[in-house]
Design a protein that fits this description.
Elements lengths: L12 E9 L4 H15 L1 E6 L3 E3 L10 E10 L3 H14 L17 E7 L4 E2 L4 E2 L8 H10 L5
Antiparallel strand pairs: 1-4, 1-5, 2-4, 3-4, 6-7
Helix pairs in contact: 1-2
Length: 149
């Protein structure tokens, strides 16, 4: 269900990801996740600064460290989702948030945008439907987006 876009190339399409961690060595967890993304999803082109933020949607004494990255991938959106969820499990994530119930987690990886694809399936919606509501997503994302000048 992938559509070709004008920015597609033999190297792949642009996939923007949001990453967050609020348990354990958060910086190490983000770096490990980015390394695995580079090995399994595609070539990491840009990584934002890491920013510390308060938990969103739930209360916790553990602040998050958040980042965004741009990856060139030849995987389909569904393959990207499966691969990032596998990386989350390998790095210690035990459960996904469901129905707006959030919790502490060692790693969270969300697909934000896959080129200019618009997709809505039971498992995946692109672009991410709530990313613009979340400064912890938008601040790092704006840092790595191409400038509009």
């Amino acid at each position: 269900m992938t559509k070709e876009t004008s920015s597609s190339s033999p190297k792949g399409v642009e996939l923007y990801l949001s990453l967050g961690s609020n348990l354990g060595d958060r910086e190490d967890m983000l770096n490990r996740a980015i390394a695995l993304i580079g090995e399994r999803v595609g070539e990491v082109q840009r990584v934002s600064s890491f920013i510390e933020t308060e938990p969103w949607g739930f209360k916790s004494k553990h602040p998050f460290l958040n980042a965004a990255c741009l990856v060139l991938t030849t995987l389909s959106p569904e393959q990207c989702l499966e691969t990032t969820q596998q990386i989350e499990r390998e790095l210690g994530r035990k459960r996904k948030s469901r129905n707006g119930v959030y919790h502490d987690r060692p790693i969270d990886i969300d697909l934000l945008m896959y080129d200019d694809l618009e997709l809505s399936t039971p498992k995946l919606t692109l672009p991410h439907p709530r990313m613009k509501e979340r400064e912890f997503v938008m601040i790092p994302l704006r840092e790595i987006l191409p400038s509009s000048s």
